[in-house]
Every structure is written in C-alpha cells, then in structure tokens.
Amino acid sequence: MTGPAASLLSALAALGALSDPLAWLVVATFVGGSLLELRAREPARYVLVGAWLLFALFWLTLVHHFAFEQKSVIEGVGAVAAVPLSAYVGYLLYAGRDSLFVLSRAVAGMGAVFMPFEALAVLRRPLIETVTVQTELLMGLLGQDPTVLTWSEATERIAAQYDWAAARARSFSEERGYYDYRNTFFFLHEGQYPITYTIRLACTGLGSMAIFAGLIVAVRAPLRRKARAFAVSIPVIYALNLVRNVFIGLTFGQQRLQVAVPQVMSLFGTSDPRMVSYFLADRVLAQSLSVVALVAITWLVVRELPEVLTVVEDVLYVLTGSEYDLRDALDVDGSGPDSDPDPAPVRADGGE
Fold first, then answer.
1. Can you give the residue range of the structural domain that contains 21?
2. Partners of 185 in the beta sheet?
3. Residue 106 falls within a domain, yes or no?
4. Among residues 45, 20, 244, which one has the least CA distance to residue 111?
5. Which residue in the list 203, 225, 228, 283 is annotated as catalytic?
6. List 45, 225, 228, 244, catalytic entry
7. Does 244 participate in catalysis according to the annotation?
8. Are residues 244 and 161 in the same domain?
9. Is residue 27 within 8 Å of 109, Cβ to Cβ?
C-alpha cells in the first residue's frame, strides 16, 4: 500500500501510542465532570462536553489497533463510528440535552471500573489467572486435557525447536497486553508448529461487565433494584465469557473451523492458514453472538431497572435522530411491589 492510504495508516498507527495516557485523561475528565454535576450542573456541562471530545479522540487512537492489528471487523467499524458519535454527544450535551448527563455518568463509571484492572497487576493478574483456571476446568469437563503454561514457558518450549520463536515472543510484550501469567493454552499438532491461545484482560469479560456496572451506577434508583440489575447482568456476562473462551480455545487450538481457508486468509490478511479457525471462531462467531447476548442482557437489566432506558433512548437518538419512548414499547414503568412509595414518572437524570 502506497500513497495517501499508506500515510493515513501510518498516522493512525502513530496515534495508537497515545491511547493509554489518553484513556486515563478521558476517565479522569468524565469522573471529575460527574462529581461536579452533584453541586453545579452548568459548569459540569462544559467539563463533560470536553470529556466527550476527548473520548472521540480516544476512539480515533484505537482505530488502527482494532481494524488492522486485531483484524476485527466489528470492533474496527465500532471504533470508526465512535469518533463522530462521541463528538456529536458532546454537541448535544452542550446544546442542552440534559439526559446525556446520565450517559456521561455511565462512561465515568465504566472507566472507574475498568482502568484499575488495566493498570494494577494486583487486580489484573488474579482476574486473568482465575478466568484461565475456570476455562481449563470447563475444557476438562468436555473431556479435553489442555496444557496451560505461563507465556515465557510457552515461548521457551517453542524456542527450543523453532528459530522464529524468539522474535515472535518479543512481539507479544506487556505493551500489547501479554503478561507472564499462567494464562496460555498450548496445543501441539504432529509435524506442525504449536498453537498458543492466551487469556488476556480483554478475554475476561471485564469490558462488558464495566459497561453494565457503569450503567447501573449512573442511574438514580433504589439500591435493591440496582442490586437485582447487577445480579442479572454481571454473573451472566462472566459465565458467557467463560463459554466463549472454551469455544475459541478449543476451536482454534484443535483447528476445528478450517472452512473456506483461502477466502478467510484473504479477508483477514493473514499468511498462516491455521489462523482461519481463530478468525472465524473469535472475530466472526463469538463477536457476533456477543452483540446478541449484550442486547438480551440489556433487556434483563431494563426489566429490573427501567431508568437505564434513558441511556438507551439517548443512544438511539444519537444514532437515528429520532426520539423514542421505550417504556411503553417494552411495558416497563418502574412500578410494582419494589418501587418507591408514591412513585413519580421514571427519570434517570433526577431532573424535574
């Protein structure tokens, strides 16, 4: 690739180096603006508008990673779309759409949950290794006996036989989310290079759990209903993520989806035919089913916490430009035996 396209890709790759420090700045700005809203809504509005513009820049720094390094169609398209959409949310908040304060609080909550695990090994390592052990256990229940190693043990085993292993090991550095934990499934195939499947932070379900935790924390509702919303979302996401890891690990490690190999290799730009099983299992099947699962979990959360619909309605407005009243459509109004005494109309932003 040459010319303007190559220059654009180089610029996107260079921007990727800013993603980590920018992530902290984005979260700090959202949290600061959300705290300020408790005392002074109008000054908080301008802080949060700035946070949304920074969020747009943050998504721009991730485009190259998702689209060209991870080769994920869903995540790549999502990152590209998130750039103008985040800037538009900032504009709408500036223009007076006050319900977007709730979405802003939700993003603050998401970042406050996710970023400590990203930064602190004391949180990150137990989560990754616990997910690895549970994935290994579920594989065992299916009659499989995978070898699980630390990343350094896996690369040392490979390096003992194959010249290219040392260079490959160096490419999987901590900067790219590969840590020397007991989190690498090691599959041997006679006459072929070994296959490794490594559980990283992105494989723990933390991102999706942080999204729902942020949504639940952001709305103003009785704690008992928030607790029920947590109960129908976080454990379900965690369990489904384990199933996802088992499916991808065994499908890739045992090469069970070698379908339309030349076409898939061309589509994802890989020269290794063994990666076909991985791309089909993860990038196509698992990620597509994850979208369906998240929609279903959102519905479960809404049944317990209708206030979340304010965020859903705002997201639909940003995407379509049309107003929606989902409470009537889904027949939820927050009333019932667990509702507040003398309930008022459901309002997630606490406004009048």
1. 1-97
2. 148, 197
3. no
4. 20
5. 203
6. 244
7. yes
8. yes
9. no
